[in-house]
């Protein structure tokens, strides 16, 4: 009990000494010696806690700013994609309009590709025009680069287009060169990255690498002069009586999005190839 009273008395004296109410030099020194380390620890802890709080606030701010930057970057990416799409579409439409200006003798109906055959052959596309728009079978479908294919089936508001690369597609063709004009039939191969084949050429036909091939128009179902492609090479037919030519198509059908359907035309006999501004003198540019 007496020890407890002594401790209480010492604590009271220390408190008075701290407050300055009593002056005991020795006691003051003892109190300072005891209190100073504790006070220093408290200040250090308080400073560390304050620093930690500031760091946490800074981290929180940085995370918020980082999220905002991510959102802005995503918006910029979307804007860039939209701009690239707009530019590409503008380029395609400009080319189509330029084509239309070069063929006043053709009645052209604009259409969009809305579906594709995703099977092994991949030789058909669907466009958003049909019988209600005046479409009929065998009408030619074109872009500014050349012929894409022929209308195969017609529905009220859509049509199936057989691509020129299809093995089922056969189109009368001729060489666009004044000193040749060799005539044959273009057939597809229904194989990706494979050239078209120009068949039934006379063995002595003057067909050269680089010659431009156009539609002959002899069938009367589509106009003459539509660009088909460019001769890659020639080879004798197996029996040796005829000549075949591999022809690289002018149009990459896998990338076609907008097209024209040739719904009517007056077919000039000359068929000089003016229908495509990218050809000149019968040679690919």
UniProtKB/TrEMBL annotation:
One of its GO terms (cellular component) is plasma membrane. It comes from the Bacteria. The keyword Coiled coil applies. Residues 113-262 form the Rod shape-determining protein MreC beta-barrel core domain. NCBIfam families: mreC (TIGR00219). Involved in formation and maintenance of cell shape. Residues 52-89 form a coiled coil. The lineage of its organism: Bacteria, Bacillati, Bacillota, Negativicutes, Acidaminococcales. The keyword Transport does not apply. This is Cell shape-determining protein MreC. One of its GO terms (biological process) is regulation of cell shape. Keywords: Cell shape, Coiled coil. Pfam families: MreC (PF04085). InterPro entries: Cell/Rod_1, Cell/Rod_MreC_2, MreC, MreC_beta-barrel_core. Belongs to the MreC family.
């Amino acid at each position: 009990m007496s020890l407890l009273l002594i401790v209480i008395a010492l604590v009271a004296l220390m408190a008075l000494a701290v407050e300055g109410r009593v002056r005991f030099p020795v006691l003051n020194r003892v109190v300072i010696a005891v209190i100073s380390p504790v006070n220093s620890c408290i200040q250090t802890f308080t400073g560390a806690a304050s620093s930690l709080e500031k760091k946490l606030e800074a981290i929180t701010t940085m995370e918020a700013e980082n999220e905002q930057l991510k959102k802005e970057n995503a918006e910029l990416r979307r804007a860039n994609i939209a701009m690239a799409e707009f530019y590409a579409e503008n380029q395609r439409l400009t080319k189509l309009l330029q084509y239309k200006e070069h063929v006043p003798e053709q009645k052209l109906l604009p259409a969009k590709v809305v579906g594709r055959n995703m099977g092994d052959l991949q030789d058909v596309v669907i466009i958003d025009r049909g019988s209600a728009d005046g479409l009929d079978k065998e009408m030619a479908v074109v872009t500014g680069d050349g012929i894409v294919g022929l209308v195969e089936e017609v529905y009220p508001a859509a049509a199936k287009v057989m691509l020129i690369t299809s093995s089922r597609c056969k189109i009368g063709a001729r060489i666009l060169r004044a000193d040749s004009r060799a005539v044959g039939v273009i057939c597809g191969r229904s194989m990706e990255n494979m050239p078209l084949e120009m068949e039934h050429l006379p063995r002595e036909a003057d067909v050269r690498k680089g010659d431009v091939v156009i539609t002959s128009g002899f069938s009367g179902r589509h106009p003459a002069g539509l660009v088909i492609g460019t001769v890659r090479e020639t080879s004798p037919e197996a029996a040796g009586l005829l000549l075949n030519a591999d022809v690289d198509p002018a149009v990459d059908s896998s990338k076609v999005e907008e097209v024209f359907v040739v719904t009517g035309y007056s077919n000039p006999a000359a068929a000089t190839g003016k229908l495509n501004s990218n050809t000149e003198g019968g040679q690919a540019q």
